[in-house]
Amino acid sequence: xxxxxxxxxxxxxxxxxxxxxxxxxxxxxxxxxxxxxxxxxxxxxxxxxxxxxxxxxxxxxxxxxxxxxxxxxxxxxxxxxxxxxxxxxxxxxxxxxxxxxxxxxxxxxxxxxxxxxxxxxxxxxxxxxxxxxxxxxxxxxxxxxxxxxxxxxxxxxxxxxxxxxxxxxxxxxxxxxxxxxxxxxxxxxxxxxxxxxxxxxxxxxxxxxxxxxxxxxxxxxxxxxxxxxxxxxxxxxxxxxxxxxxxxxxxxxxxxxxxxxxxxxxxxxxxxxxxxxxxxxxxxxxxxxxxxxxxxxxxxxxxxxxxxxxxxxxx
Length: 315
Hints:
With about 325 residues, this protein is mainly beta.
């Protein structure tokens, strides 16, 4: 039987309390109504995606150039030609400084976008893939883009469970139209969600060794995936499944630890290389969404507010 309720020693709980008390709130500007995706760019700046779901502000990309600074609007993501809005969520950078953006649209109108820059300003925005049902998280690895879709309702399941999946695109792909079904050759890994929380595969992270991690939000688990020479998933193993309610975004650090934002638990969580789960900070978020390790600190975007939370990491 899996023990899903671990009892934390007093010293561990004290460390969690200390991390929470040392947390610093970073206020986003008024043009950001809810931050989500985080990434570090080649100039070592923290980049923030904001879907701005209330639609009082356009979906946009923000930047924080140094710890202790003030985040500011970098650029507005071009709206979808049919919906008139953009909802940037997961983001990552490629080796040439290009930015990849998951534009999370309804009605299978989602896009995976590629933004290139000149003189630190957007030069061109291209569509890598379109027709996505729920474009959520994205990471670059060896010329390929690994993107999660939190639900794939067109995948048939007789048991009523909710399917979700990991897609793989070439970084050179343009205007790939997906069907969100098993017929998509880009679909390389699937999972399913049994419970009442109807959200599946969400965060994705890649470590320095090229290992891919994905989580299942509704099932509270993280998978460890090994890509083969062709980029497709050659092996998978359940990496962590205890002490997490709803792991959202994922990131890794230089030591190979994995971090996630556990939204329903209101916590930032660390998973070491052996899969052991510990809480880094708790009760200092509204809806923690995406983690990012930057300059010795862990940043968590708060999807339920207009702030980031900065947490010092133990050395």
